[in-house]
Design brief:
The chain has a six-stranded antiparallel sheet. The N and C termini lie far apart (60 Å). Helix 3 (36-50) crosses helix 5 (73-85). The longest helix has 15 residues, at 36-50. Strand 4 (151-161) and strand 5 form a beta hairpin. The protein is an alpha+beta fold and 262 residues long. Helices cover 31% and strands 26% of the residues.
Amino acid sequence: MSQKTSHQTGDTAPQRDPLLDHLAASLSEAEDHSPIYMRLAVALADAIDAGLLGRGRSLPSERLLAERLDISRVSVRRAIAELEGEGRVSRRHGARTMVQTRVRKDLPNLTGFSDDIRARGMKPSFTWIFRGNVIGTLQETMALGLPAQTEVVRLVRVRLADGTPIALERAVLPKSILPDAMLVVHSLYETLASLNAMPNHGFQRIRADVMSPEEAELLQAAPLTPMLIAERRCFLEDGRPVEFTETRYNGKVYDFISDLHR
């Protein structure tokens, strides 16, 4: 009796939480028929990108997520495992799952590679490695907000400046935005402009790594040469994801520069 009275007076009613509201709304989208754990992984990744889960913060417990979202703890665990595999979260035995802390540098200009190189007074060019339609990887479909195993357009090329290879670029786009990879002849952004699908805004993350032997061969560098990896997600004005691009720069020949104002 006391429990019923307490519920009616609101003493034990769960408080509203922006994160849980966002996750519940994402899982309720009827048009997405991908597995529930994948939809939760995508929703959590979006929450991280949107700032609902800041760097260094802990995720709600598996039990709380399962209860509030009305899904199984197995699905919650699989979703978190997907995010951990993508490097977005980390978890240790006996500790809560934490959003990975990375230094993030905002770069204000949304421009393509060719424009960046021309702005540095050099001539851009490229060599195609791959151009076609493929089943997207988990990372690619998550970044584009698509169900798992969705076909996407993937463009992979070596980027050159004044004839010197300086970066490996992998751009992935939804087929609803770019129906045919062969439409991209030179500039991806020029092609998107012709389709009235130019990115309006985006997010960029930069991290460090070293080259694999295969990457070093393509960039005419020594294995284990430092790399700067820029991951960029871009959106149309209406919020639809239009592009996910990962560009791996030779860290010895490329610098990121940004004006700073107080």
